[in-house]
Design goal:
This protein is mainly alpha-helical and about 425 residues long. It has one domain (about 1-415). Helices cover about 70% and strands about 0% of the residues. Helix 8 packs parallel to helix 9. The longest helix has about 50 residues, at about 245-295. The radius of gyration is 21 Å and the shape is globular. The two termini are about 20 Å apart.
């Protein structure tokens, strides 16, 4: 009876149904259903369960995540010092102007771009990825290149991680390439993670999601496009030695990359938010006009209204109901149609109940949106021009895979909290 009561609490039984539904959707859109490797599916799902249990239910896991969260918060404070020096009083949120997004949030990306480049220069990121790859690869039976790229996406961005395996991209099969793409869209980079934390998103759950989502991205990718080609055996090892050049060159390069990313994020937010406002205006005006002409009694139709219906079933499967389900459905739609940046910004402003906010944090924790298709085609396509056609062909599949991986992670986490 205790087990039954546990699954009835917070509608956790719906989380179980949701996991089956997500896997079913992935199987439905699979290009080679007969070749699905069920051993990999079971292994990846089991690994995800173990990771979720360790991070959410054990003292050691909670301690590690809490320590990492404190570390990220300290790094955020250090970044604020550089911001304050350049922008002065504008960086003080207690001032009459409040939080200026472009001043308080975006500069963090620049700092973390430099910081991640520094860690990479000394081989710290490579060592962490190599250790994780040594553990994960035998469990899943995937190749070294695709596994290491999926793991690296926990720390790096969706265009930076492929740099670790750039010499193997040319010989990759289409299935391996999809793993690279889905793992990039189903996770977020370390630099962006810190920005979301500064916005008020729970940092501990962001960190947990970055790790728990790793097997989910591989699992979903291998269901959507199982391996049917001859795989070239590889023994990928990440070079843990120092990169060429000195520390200052690494910091300079990382800062430049961070600046480019900052400008890109800022420009995309300006453009997308403005275009959304324009589209909402057209939709609302059209509905209003139709009501005045034909007395149809249509509700106020805008993107939020449309998303609330389109993604409502997934919000229900997460165990939510009423206004919470509608709010979460809108956030899921915003993440896919625009980006997770705007979705997290909306989530924080909604002040949702703690459990709703927690599970939504996991569901939104990924780059799976339409703009990421262009980012990956441009970024990865430069490294391997011969695969550019594959990248464009697999773009929508990767967005679907990343979204399903995030939902799978959130549904699984719902069983433990």
């Amino acid at each position: 009876m205790q087990i039954v009561s546990y699954f009835l609490e917070y509608n956790r039984y719906l989380n179980l149904i949701g996991i089956v539904v997500v896997l079913g959707i992935a199987a439905l859109f699979s290009r080679h259903k007969r070749h699905i490797n069920y051993r990999l599916v079971v292994s990846a799902l089991s690994l995800q369960v173990v990771l979720a249990f360790c991070m959410l239910k054990t003292v050691t896991g909670k301690t590690v995540i809490a320590s990492l969260a404190r570390g990220v918060n300290h790094l955020y404070d250090y970044a604020a010092q550089g911001t304050s020096f350049v922008f002065g009083a504008l960086a003080d949120p207690s001032g009459p102007w409040g939080v200026v997004f472009a001043v308080k949030v975006l500069p963090i990306i620049i700092f973390f771009g430099a910081f991640m480049a520094l860690l990479f220069h000394f081989g710290i990121i490579q060592r962490v990825v190599a250790v994780l790859g040594f553990v994960v690869r035998p469990l899943l039976g995937t190749t070294g290149s695709e596994t290491l790229c999926a793991l690296a996406n926990t720390f790096l961005g969706q265009t930076e991680s492929p740099l670790l395996i750039r010499n193997y991209l040319e010989s990759m099969t289409k299935s391996e390439l999809l793993v690279v793409m889905v793992s990039g869209m189903g996770t977020i980079s370390g630099s962006i993670l810190a920005v979301y934390a500064s916005m008020g998103v729970p940092i501990a759950h962001l960190l947990s999601s970055s790790v728990i989502a790793i097997p989910a991205t591989i699992l979903i990718a291998k269901i959507l496009l199982p391996e049917t080609e001859k795989v070239i055996a590889d023994k990928v090892s990440v070079n843990a030695q120092e990169t060429k050049g000195n520390v200052f060159e690494a910091v300079s390069a990382g800062t430049s990359d961070g600046l480019s990313l900052t400008l890109n994020v800022g420009a995309m937010l300006i453009a997308f938010i403005a275009l959304i406002a324009l589209l909402n205006g057209v939709l609302e005006g059209t509905a209003c006009q139709l009501n005045s002409w034909f007395s149809l009694g249509l509700p106020v139709i805008n993107l939020d209204y449309i998303f609330s219906w389109l993604f409502y079933p997934f919000a229900l499967l997460l165990g939510f109901s009423g206004s919470d389900a509608s709010s979460v459905a809108q956030l899921l739609g915003t993440k896919v149609a625009v980006n997770e940046f705007l979705a997290y910004h909306k989530m924080v402003s909604l002040q949702l109940p703690e459990r709703v906010q927690t599970l939504t944090t996991y569901a939104l924790c990924g780059f799976s949106n339409f703009s990421s298709i262009g980012i990956q085609v441009g970024g990865i396509g430069v490294l391997v021009p011969s695969k550019r056609q594959w990248l464009t062909e697999l773009g929508l599949t990767a967005v679907l895979g990343g979204s399903l991986a995030n939902l799978l992670t959130a549904l699984l986490v719902g069983l433990f909290i």
